Amino acid sequence: GILIAKKKLFTNEVPGDCGGGIVNFVTRTQTEYVQDIETREEGGTPNILGSIRAGLVFHLKESLGCHTIETREDALVEKF
Q1: Would you state the torsion angle of the CA atoms of residues 10, 5, 40, 18, taken in this order, to the nearest 10 degrees?
Q2: Which residues contact 54 (CB under 8 A, 6 or more apart)?
Q3: CA of 5: how far to CAs of 8, 37, 51, in Å?
Q4: Alpha helices (H) along 1-80
Q5: Helix (H, G, I), strand (E, B), or coil: what is residue 26?
Q6: What is the Cα–Cα distance from 50 to 76, expressed in whole angstroms?
Q7: Where does residue 2 rank: exposed (0-12), middle (13-18), buried (19+ CB within 10 A)?
Q8: Cα angle for residues 69, 67, 5 (degrees, 5° grid)
Q9: Which among 8, 37, 33 is positioned nearest to 18, based on CA atoms?
Q10: Tens digit of pLDDT per residue, the chain (80 long)?
């Protein structure tokens, strides 16, 4: 998925989840996390397939147009 948020919402210096690439250094008493918000919050193995899927969804939306998608969505809502 994709998360878009204002930087000022990320006030916690400690990331939500632990993963590779989120620390500058670690000692027995201290951990220094990277300052870049995106790097800090997306630690670990990158979700490459998720990024490809997101790109394909945006391409599909651009190809079909919002009106076509909305029409199909409305038809499905009526059906169910």
Answers
A1: 90
A2: 1, 2
A3: 8, 11, 17
A4: 37-41, 48-64, 66-79
A5: strand
A6: 25
A7: exposed
A8: 70
A9: 33
A10: 677 888 888 888 888 778 888 999 999 999 999 988 888 888 888 889 988 999 999 999 999 999 999 999 999 999 98
What is the C-alpha separation between 56 and 49, in angstroms, rounded? 10
Please, what is the end-to-end C-alpha distance for the chain in angstroms? 26
Question: Residue 10, class by beta-carbon neighbours within 10 Å (0-12 exposed, 13-18 middle, 19+ buried)?
Answer: middle
Q: Which residue, chain included where needed, has tokens 């590779």?
A: 20
